[in-house]
Amino acid sequence: MGQTQLDWWRSAVIYQIYPRSFADANGDGIGDLPGITSRLGSLKSLGIDAVWLSPFMRSPQKDAGYDVSDYCDVDPLFGTLDDFDRLLATAHSLGLRVLIDLVPNHTSDQHEWFKRAVAAGPGSPEREFYHFRDGDAPPNNWQSMFGGPAWTQLPDGQWYCHLFDSSQPDLNWENPKVQEAFEDILRFWLDRGVDGFRVDQPHAMGKAKGLPDHPDVERAGAGFIEGEPSPPMWFQESVHPIFRKWRAILESYPGQRAMCGEAYVLPLSFMALWVRPDEFHQTFNFRYLDSPWTAKDIRKTIDESFDAFGAVGAPSTWVLSNHDVMRHASRMGGDFGRTTASDGVGPNDPQPDAELGLKRALAATLFTLGLPGSMYLYQGEELGLPEHTTLEPEFRQDPTFARTNGARVGRDGCRVPLPWESNVNESSGFNQTGKSWLPQPAAYANYARDLQEGVEGSTLETYKWALAKRKELNLGHGTFEWAEDLCSESVLAYRNRSLLVIHNFETNETTWKLDS
Length: 516
Ligand code: GLC
Ligand code: CA
Hints:
Elements: H1 3-6, H2 8-11, E1 13-17, H3 33-46, E2 50-53, E3 57-58, E4 70-74, H4 81-93, E5 97-102, H5 112-120, E6 132-133, E7 151-153, E8 159-161, H6 176-192, E9 196-199, H7 217-220, H8 240-251, E10 258-261, H9 268-271, E11 282-283, H10 286-290, H11 295-311, E12 317-319, H12 328-331, H13 338-343, H14 354-369, E13 374-378, H15 399-403, H16 449-452, H17 459-472, E14 481-482, E15 491-496, E16 499-504
Parallel strand pairs: 1-2, 1-13, 2-5, 5-9, 9-10, 10-11, 12-13
Antiparallel strand pairs: 3-4, 6-8, 7-8, 14-15, 15-16
Helix pairs in contact: 3-4, 6-8, 14-17
This protein binds alpha-D-glucopyranose and calcium ion (CA).
Calcium ion binds near residues 26, 28, 30 and 32.
């Protein structure tokens, strides 16, 4: 077997499915596993290699499933384990691999482990599963990523730590029992046949001993400042042995299982430590996602990516959209910095230019699809879907909205159900009933898949064409070289094998004369 087949993940195009918004088979307004299974054929025809499913495990859905109450069962909202097995078998019969989302930094407060810890009381071994502390005030100055303090007090006086919502208590990864429990969870899904995992917030799992204050909370808030020493809740060294163990578990199974870490670690030379040959197979390249779309920034980012990942023998990944940031078709239609992009845009904010945004986004995607490495696509981008930027407050579900009293509208705008068939009903064929857990903006009907299928020049057909070319020329496993003679302040050009890609970052018309 050649390397191409052996290391599928090095070049794969992986499509992110957000289950609650992909396709709804039973018509209750929330996407489900049977809905996904029924539409897998359309992903096959798009030309992708694998799908990653955001969480569908049992969950009270306080953070859209990233608050898991049972890691080894399917939430009834999405179906059953049998439905999952059918999904997996169908995907495999189509030649698509399936990665699932694993959320190890925190559980739901409705998980048995947390319920037992609360019941068992202070000082019990059950409380050692999480970070509990005594005190009259929060034990330190840590902030939640969703706003407000990272500590909540129980009626018995102890506080528990949560870097996200108060319904998402952080696990104590120093506890060997937590480590063993997750190894069992990995095996549970690997035995079922999944091809790997997307791992949520792996850089949050380790906490510095004694849980000291964040040294720069005024400037960094809940996050970190690039180039400064790691704050006590991010990128602790103690997590790396855990991932080495997981890698060994994956490798003990046949069939090239792989894991991708959502390691938000910068600079990329630091992130590269996470993809050393015995740790994660890949991580999301957040630098690329965050970069302003200018020739200067993108050139710097691409150079940094190849340098950093190349140094440890890992492929770079490329990503422009996901379920946590403003869709790139809208992001590129206005002046939306990284912060606004992940905090969302609401009806009272400046609105993107949809036409310009889509043109730029499509050009950005084509530019990106020519790069060697692995590419992540987010459901709906192949339709050119814009963000829902006028969603009314009463529909907001992202905990960020409530925790900041609406100051940050949150991420719901990129999570709206997909339009499949124009004008069949109010949800554009997301289901048979027209119900939808978040309302689609009126414009979505114009982006429906059936209007684009087979239509030359549509966003969908352009994606298909580019994905087919990528496969035909084996670009994922290809080579990269700047075509210096064609690059300028506003133009980037590169070669990958026999392909020449030229991208004009400005809106003015430019022509090129090519030698051959
Ligand atoms: C990750 C997920 C995000 C979630 C958070 C907490 O960043 O992508 O959706 O809210 O982790 O689990
Ligand atoms: Ca449903």
